[in-house]
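Kindly inspect both lines:
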Amino acid sequence: MRQYSADLTPPWKKPKPVPEVPADPGLVVEEPGTGFCGAVIRCEAGTVTLEDRFGKHRVFPLEPRGFLLEGRVVTLVKPVSSPLRPTRTASGSVAVPGARARVARAGRIYVEGRHDAELVERVWGDDLRIEGVVVEYLEGVDDLPAIVAEFAPGPDARLGILVDHLLPGTKEWRIAQSVTSEHALVVGHPYIDIWEAVKPSSVGIAAWPRVPHGQDWKTGVCRALGWPENTGAVWQAILAKVQSYKDLEPELLGRVEELIDFVTDNGEA
């Protein structure tokens, strides 16, 4: 006798089908068994890795009806062929996939030179576009008082300024003190040049060499390390080694973050 298998479960007791949702990077879901809520950062080998807002990671199996999406039960499935997007910007901030750049604020951040501006853009560019902050460069600080006076910083147009080699008692320090106000903040790092704010290990050297006083610092560095004396080309090679905030010295990181916070603080709590 031929045997037949039959599903004798009454229709009203069968679980209703739920949608299948690709576990695309950045998708925020909740695992109901643990209450863990986070964004997808990885999906492989039948598992999905979530990251919560505190940066904590948890790995869960891709099981049917295993997650909640906006309060609805869903089945996560592995994406077909979409590459994983980074979950962090180069500065370490949480990435916002598809976020549009904000209309530029009236406030600005000024840095001393083009190399400084390029380094800030490389590490903080995504954050600055979301916040609508424009970075411009000064080519030195001698004319800073006139520049600040022309800018006329105020509550809705704050000005942040990053100065190289800002040490107490120096000419740069006195100029910075003269323009600092409630709506204009000048901060600095201890390095002679922005090159020195890149960690030596990231560039592949043991340390940045000491250059005799009176000699052009960049040229002296190139000579001491046996690099070509084309400082523009050398800088581009250094910049290419910078992949994230991890390649920069903490003394620079803190100052740039301080300026971004200052310029974007509109007094709203």
